[in-house]
Amino acid sequence: MSKFSRASLVLVNNSGNLYATNYSLVLKVNPRFQSIRFQSDAKKAPAAAKPPPAGISYKNLTVGCVRETFANERRVAVTPAVAQNLVKKGFKVVIEENAGALAKFPNDQYEKAGAKIEPASKVYAASDILLKVRAPDLNVSNNYADSIDYKAYKIIYY
Question: What is 58-157's CATH number?
Answer without folding.
Answer: 3.40.50.720
